[in-house]
């Protein structure tokens, strides 16, 4: 049978796209090489009795309109917005209230960033429905993106012009760069204020619950699934897509494909280079990836050492410092682990008690500025141990006595992220967060990026502007574009 | 009471003299005041420039500078990248020869060179509408052109990395964007700006005036005097006076004298111009905060080495009348910027070198040769102070050049260092480039760089240019703005 | 003039009340929100929350004729009620209009308690006097805390409080030295703990300590209102004006969605004849707005025709949209029908805005399921 659409990847984006296409009455199949859906939003037991999400603790915000379309609440995914974030120095602490009322300059800036993010997501979603013929030149009447100024300002300047006090500025910068890498003193770094690191919408049951809810929604909408086999190539005839080939040689006949893999992987994996137009190959090769995240998960048998922090919830930044972030960025470029790595700690079990036994706790550490390729060789066991030690040191500064209660841990380095999720260079964001790779300046300078020079192929990977900053939007955008194109009979 | 002058120009540098010339040619009574004892400002002293690459052709034409003694010893200096391992890269206007030179480092780059240069120079030419106020329309629309937006958000490193693979070519080309780190957004625009310039009718050329940069100053002084402008040297301005409506009424000199005029053009940076006491009171809090926040960008130091034999660059034959860039990789520039931000000298110094005597033999007595080095990016304030750092910097420069000029240390007879601190102290200039550069400044409407919140005060110095350089354009734009304001009245 | 009373938990509430936001219900001062109402409502759905419910109106009904009186008063028969259990029912005016909705709990053969959110003391007491039954207001004798959320049971277990109870049942027990009554009367799947006023602070502290591992927060009145709406529960005095006139036939039970609290098998309750004669014209439905702005007490249209009116309306942080309870004409009350309303102008939005609202089955969201540890 010929499907109307085949979706590669059953992560949040793929499931969202499947739901929307299914609700529109199209026949959809989702191809996933793993054994279950969810992608990066999964929760697994990393030590007997202790569970955590290996890749991300929280999700980036989902626009309300998408929540309604996907009916997430009724499928069991209730998303709570982020509330607090703290930064701890040896002698003082700074807290930020995220969302809610802005009480000072820092919170007002965060509220502005959140407003920009929402506007960008709305912009992209609205644009997807419009049918634009694919072209390499951007329409000149396209309105300016909100936060366009941030694409050329330094993060330091953006904080200074908002009159943010030094402690709050370091805190905000650490939050924005959490799990990523950037130089706060370099022009263009202000765009990180929009980044997902500054969000942290949580669900009870962790991100895995979102995956489950989306899976249920997709199935309820009539989508079919294929698990266990990797998609190996996309077949075309006469310039039109006719099917997707799987690793075991079988072929799924389909009229169009939505790929939720990132830009580079989509083009360089599924097509032979000679079959693609040369400018496309050049632009895709020039697209910059910036894999920089590593995660360390800790299982603690005794919560007592964590009690000292009181009612701390949300991410904790140990002693953030702008200059150290800059040095970490330089070290990252050189393929070296900086002396002072940016770390974000999160007591995930205090907000989601199901992750640990009642007397225990799960603490995750998200490290930034971790190079995918190390200057001095491969990611050996020793290197991973080094990451674990760094995370442990950071935790000790906030929770004295932390180390002696740790009964188990797990280290997820950038190559592990690449292997597990198919994210090129372990880049969870699908590309460097830079003004010339987003905000309408993508590889093809199109305001709405799901469409590609290949008819019938749509992208829903994480490089899309809005999805560096939001969840499920890329899938929705691709699905809407597909539906709009079909309505105009752009392909049979 | 009628004001004796129509305009006062603060600073008798290249821009100040140009502005004065234009105003005087239009019949205004102009006086130029300068605290130094000779005109020319930084250019005369040999501050952060040793070649001429951005001088406005309109200024040369309209002020008839060629008749006043401005001639060029070299019209189009070759760009040479000095490589540590030899195999220096020579880039000239001859596309075929350049491609052959690049091919030594990378065949792919050699093939990619011609299309890149064509695209680069074509877009740069279009962007003149934005940067040259020569009566061209549609400058504003350019800002929203998708190609410009794309470059505005791009780092030079990203652009060069996407077209070329060899460090030699990338670093040599990327050096010209040294005002920003190559990874900073907007540094690609700097390369476009550089290519938008025109010297001696050649686009993107770098020229060497016969007699050194002093001839530029002399020609401009001649033009100003011939037009009827008055020049008062050794005159320090203590304050700019304003009336109750925040309109300029004149200047107060350090000697106590006041000169009245409704128009004041200042060659100083925006921050310095607006920090005069009476003006501060006239500004709004938002303006003051914004001015306070302005940070100086990366600085250059001018190191001049005097040697007693003709310096010979080892390695393959290189045109001695070119300009030599010492930068191993784009990352070296980035690290130098990073070091500059924290107030440290970079480990690996990047610099541009010229041999003035080779370019123009008249510049020094026989037997003496000069090596002129513009080193940077460097911090404005270095930890430990510039007094201690100057010898360190000189030593680094000498060490780096010794690799390429054998016997340099043996034949060295003199070293002179003009540090950013010297520039600031001697010239009260804040910095030689008129403030930090970023994409916003490069793409802003020219009027926003020239005008100030105070009525009657116009900026005419390096701050009025998109990128501070010896250009005269600042003066010309300031004069245009002044005429525009007159026409409105 | 009735004086405002403080709840037995006021001291702790005052400490936790970040912005000093208070509200009064039934003459008692309570925290409207401790920090952020939406946060607290989400905590009640995802973790565990405690809410002060001491403001509930409670009267004790004692005597040999108590059972007969209550059967005559309520729309459910009290005869079959076993001690330690309870039922929910309405009491109507003579003309069949709803005067109140509440819960009748049997403590003993001749001891009952009526628990409701809004008082109706004078009318009930005079009716009781006619049948020779003594009623007295016992709200001041106990304070109550509701423990709600998936980890409510886990919290109580950690606090060593045995709350193994069937829904709608209750019992007295001794909890580490203090006498409390625990019940499962609420609409949100939680447990209520009733204690002597002097023990209030101790009960609060014990629960907060036990729930710390599960992320316990105190929930204010605003958060509870959000939960009420998400559960589709209308409240007298907040959503609708209960009938107060002897001749008042409004509101009808079906118009406010409470017809399920009437036992069709029960006969002889006050207002039954009028109820049987009436034909329901309106029904209670839930409305889901396509906006985050709520619209309480606003007319609802279908096309150009007015078909009903909203009751309370809030932004639901779980559903990420504004919701409302509304009473609409029966023809327009099918789930899925799209109606519209006009949002009034506000400071942030000076123009009127038309919003569409979809009719939804109630409850919007089911009560949180307990997670056992």
Structural features:
heterotrimer, A: 492 residues, alpha/beta, Polyamine Oxidase, Chain A, domain 2, five-stranded parallel β-sheet, B: 489 residues, FAD/NAD(P)-binding domain, 3 domains, seven-stranded mixed β-sheet, 19 strands
Q: What does the model show?
A:
The complex is a heterotrimer of chains A (492), B (489) and C (373). Chain A is α/β, with parallel strands linked by helices and 492 residues long. Chain A has a domain of 224 residues: Polyamine Oxidase, Chain A, domain 2 (Alpha-Beta Complex). Chain A contains 15 helices and 19 strands. In chain A, helix 1 runs parallel beside helix 15. With 489 residues, chain B is an alpha/beta fold. Chain C contains 8 helices and 20 strands. In chain C, helix 2 packs across helix 7. The model of chain C has no long low-confidence stretch (mean pLDDT 91). At the A-B interface, helix 4, helix 8 and helix 10 of A face helix 7, helix 8, helix 14 and helix 15 of B.
Report the CATH topology name of the largest domain in chain B.
FAD/NAD(P)-binding domain
Give the C-alpha Rg of chain B.
22 Å
Query: Biggest sheet of chain A, in brief?
Result: 5 strands, parallel
Q: What's the assembly state of these chains?
A: heterotrimer
* Number of beta-strand segments of chain B: 19
Largest interface: A-B, 33 and 32 residues
Helix content of chain B: 25-40%
Q: Which CATH class of one domain in chain A?
A: Alpha Beta
> What's the tally of helices of chain A?
15
**Beginning-to-end CA distance, first to last residue of chain A:** 15 Å
Strand runs of chain A, count: 19
CATH architecture call of the largest domain in chain B: 3-Layer(bba) Sandwich
Strand ordering within the main sheet of chain B: 5-4-15-16-17-14-18
Structural class of chain B: alpha/beta
């Amino acid at each position: 049978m010929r499907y109307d659409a085949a979706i590669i990847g059953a992560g949040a984006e793929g499931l969202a796209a499947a739901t929307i296409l299914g609700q529109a009455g199209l026949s959809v199949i989702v191809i996933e090489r793993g054994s279950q859906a969810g992608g990066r939003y999964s929760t697994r037991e990393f030590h007997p009795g202790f569970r955590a999400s290996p890749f991300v603790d929280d999700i980036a915000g989902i626009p309300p309109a998408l929540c309604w379309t996907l009916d997430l609440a009724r499928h069991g995914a209730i998303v709570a917005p982020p509330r607090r974030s703290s930064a701890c120095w040896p002698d003082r602490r700074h807290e930020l209230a995220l969302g809610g009322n802005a009480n000072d300059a820092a919170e007002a800036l965060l509220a502005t960033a959140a407003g920009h993010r929402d506007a960008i997501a709305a912009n992209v979603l609205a644009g997807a429905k419009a049918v634009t013929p694919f072209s390499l030149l951007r329409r000149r009447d396209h309105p300016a993106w909100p936060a366009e100024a941030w694409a050329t300002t330094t993060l330091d300047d953006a904080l200074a012009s908002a009159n943010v006090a030094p402690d709050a500025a370091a805190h905000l910068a650490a939050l924005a760069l959490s799990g990523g890498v950037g130089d706060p003193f370099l022009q263009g770094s202000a765009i990180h204020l929009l980044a997902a690191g500054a969000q942290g919408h949580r669900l009870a049951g962790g991100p895995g619950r979102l995956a489950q809810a989306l899976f249920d929604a997709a199935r309820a909408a009539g989508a079919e699934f294929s698990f266990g086999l990797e998609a190996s190539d996309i077949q075309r005839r006469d310039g039109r897509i006719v099917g997707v080939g799987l690793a075991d040689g079988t072929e799924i006949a389909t009229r169009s494909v939505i790929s939720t893999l990132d830009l580079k992987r989509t083009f360089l994996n599924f097509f032979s280079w000679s079959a693609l137009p040369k400018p496309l190959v050049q632009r895709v090769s020039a697209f910059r990836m910036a894999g920089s995240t590593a995660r360390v998960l800790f299982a603690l048998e005794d919560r007592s050492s964590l009690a000292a922090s009181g009612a701390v919830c949300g991410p904790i930044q140990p002693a953030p410092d702008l200059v150290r972030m800059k040095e970490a960025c330089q070290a990252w470029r050189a393929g070296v682990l900086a002396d002072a790595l940016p770390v974000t700690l999160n007591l995930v079990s205090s907000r989601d008690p199901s992750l640990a036994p009642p007397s225990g706790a799960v603490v995750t550490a998200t490290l930034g500025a971790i190079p995918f390729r190390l200057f001095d060789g491969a990611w050996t066991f020793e290197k991973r141990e080094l990451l674990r030690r760094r995370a442990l040191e950071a935790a000790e500064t906030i929770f004295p006595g932390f180390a002696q209660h740790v009964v188990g841990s797990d280290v997820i380095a950038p190559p592990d992220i690449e292997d597990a999720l198919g994210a090129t260079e372990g880049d969870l964001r699908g590309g460097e967060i830079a003004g010339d790779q987003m905000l309408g300046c993508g590889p093809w300078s199109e305001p709405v990026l799901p469409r590609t020079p290949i008819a019938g192929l749509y992208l829903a990977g994480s490089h899309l502007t809005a999805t560096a900053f939001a969840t499920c939007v890329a899938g929705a955008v691709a699905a809407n574009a597909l539906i709009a194109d079909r309505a105009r009979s752009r392909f049979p | 009471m009628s004001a004796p002058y129509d305009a006062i120009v603060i600073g008798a540098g290249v821009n100040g003299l140009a502005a004065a010339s234009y105003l005087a040619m239009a019949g205004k009574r102009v006086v130029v005041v300068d605290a130094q004892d000779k005109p020319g400002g930084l250019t005369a002293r040999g501050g952060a420039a040793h070649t001429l690459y951005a001088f406005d052709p309109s200024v040369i034409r309209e002020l008839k500078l060629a008749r006043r003694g401005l001639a060029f010893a070299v019209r189009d200096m070759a760009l040479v990248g000095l490589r540590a391992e030899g195999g220096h890269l020579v880039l000239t206007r001859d596309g075929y020869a350049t491609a052959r030179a690049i091919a030594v480092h990378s065949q792919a780059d050699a093939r990619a060179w011609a299309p890149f240069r064509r695209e680069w120079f074509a877009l740069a030419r279009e962007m003149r509408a934005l940067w040259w106020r020569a009566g061209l329309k549609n400058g504003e629309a350019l800002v929203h052109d998708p190609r410009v937006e794309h470059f505005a958000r791009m780092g030079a490193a990203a652009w060069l990395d996407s077209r070329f693979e060899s460090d030699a070519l990338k670093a040599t080309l990327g050096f010209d964007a040294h005002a920003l780190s190559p990874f900073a957004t907007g540094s690609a625009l700097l390369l476009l700006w550089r290519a938008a310039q025109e010297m001696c009718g050649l686009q993107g050329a770098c020229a060497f005036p016969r007699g050194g940069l002093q001839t530029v100053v002399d020609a401009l002084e001649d033009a100003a005097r011939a037009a009827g402008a008055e020049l008062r040297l050794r005159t320090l301005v203590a304050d700019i006076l304003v009336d109750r409506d925040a309109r300029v009424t004149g200047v107060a000199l350090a000697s106590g004298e006041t000169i009245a005029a409704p128009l004041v053009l200042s060659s100083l940076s925006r921050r310095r111009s607006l920090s005069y006491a009476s003006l501060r009171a006239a500004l709004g809090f938002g303006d003051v905060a914004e001015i306070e926040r302005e940070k100086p960008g990366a600085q250059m130091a001018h190191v001049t080495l005097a040697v007693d034999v003709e310096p010979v660059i080892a390695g393959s034959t290189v045109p001695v009348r070119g300009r030599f860039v010492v930068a191993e990789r784009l990352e070296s520039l980035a690290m130098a910027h990073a070091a500059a931000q924290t107030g440290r000298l970079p480990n690996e110094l990047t610099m541009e070198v010229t041999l003035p005597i080779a370019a123009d033999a008249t510049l020094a007595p026989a037997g003496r040769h000069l090596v002129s080095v513009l080193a940077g990016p460097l911090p404005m304030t270095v930890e430990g102070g510039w007094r201690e750092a100057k010898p360190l910097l000189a030593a680094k420069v000498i060490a780096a050049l010794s690799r390429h000029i054998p016997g340099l240390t043996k034949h060295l007879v003199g070293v002179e260092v003009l540090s950013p601190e010297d520039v600031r102290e001697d010239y009260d200039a804040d910095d030689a480039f008129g403030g930090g550069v970023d994409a916003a400044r490069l793409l802003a409407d020219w009027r926003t760089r020239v005008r100030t919140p105070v009525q009657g005060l116009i900026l005419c110095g390096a701050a009025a240019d998109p990128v501070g350089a010896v250009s005269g354009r600042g003066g010309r734009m300031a004069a245009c703005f002044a005429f525009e304001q007159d026409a409105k009245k | 003039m009735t004086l405002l009373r403080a709840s037995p938990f006021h001291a702790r509430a005052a400490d936790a009340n970040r912005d000093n936001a208070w509200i009064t219900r039934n003459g008692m001062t309570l925290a409207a929100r401790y920090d952020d109402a939406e946060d607290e409502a989400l905590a009640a759905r995802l973790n565990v929350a405690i809410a002060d419910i001491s403001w509930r109106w409670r009267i004790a009904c004692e005597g040999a004729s108590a059972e007969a009186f209550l059967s005559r008063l309520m729309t459910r028969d009290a005869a079959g009620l076993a001690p330690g259990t309870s039922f929910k029912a309405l009491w109507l005016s003579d003309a069949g209009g709803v005067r109140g909705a509440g819960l009748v709990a049997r403590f003993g053969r001749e001891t009952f308690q009526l628990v409701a959110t809004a008082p109706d003391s004078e009318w009930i007491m005079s009716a009781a006097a006619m049948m020779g039954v003594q009623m007295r207001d016992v709200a001041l004798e106990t304070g109550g805390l509701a423990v709600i959320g998936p980890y409510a049971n886990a919290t109580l277990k950690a606090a060593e409080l045995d709350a193994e109870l069937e829904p709608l049942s209750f019992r007295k027990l001794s909890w580490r030295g203090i006498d409390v009554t625990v019940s499962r009367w609420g609409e949100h799947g939680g447990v209520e703990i009733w204690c002597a006023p002097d023990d209030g602070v101790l009960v609060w502290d014990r629960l907060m300590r036990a729930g710390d591992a599960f992320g316990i927060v105190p929930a204010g009145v605003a958060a509870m209102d959000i939960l009420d709406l998400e559960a589709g529960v209308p409240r007298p005095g907040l959503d609708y004006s209960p009938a107060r006139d002897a001749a008042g036939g409004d509101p009808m039970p079906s118009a406010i969605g409470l017809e399920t609290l009437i036992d069709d098998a029960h006969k002889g309750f006050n207002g039954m004849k009028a109820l049987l004669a009436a034909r329901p014209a309106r029904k209670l439905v839930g409305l889901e707005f396509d906006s985050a702005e709520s619209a309480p007490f606003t007319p609802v249209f279908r096309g150009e025709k007015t078909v009903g009116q909203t009751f309370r309306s809030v932004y639901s942080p779980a559903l990420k949209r504004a919701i409302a309870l509304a009473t609409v004409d029966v023809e327009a009350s099918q789930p899925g029908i799209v109606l519209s309303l006009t949002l009034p102008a506000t400071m942030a939005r000076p123009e009127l805005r038309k919003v569409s609202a979809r009719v939804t089955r109630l409850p919007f969201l089911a009560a949180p399921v307990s997670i056992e540890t």
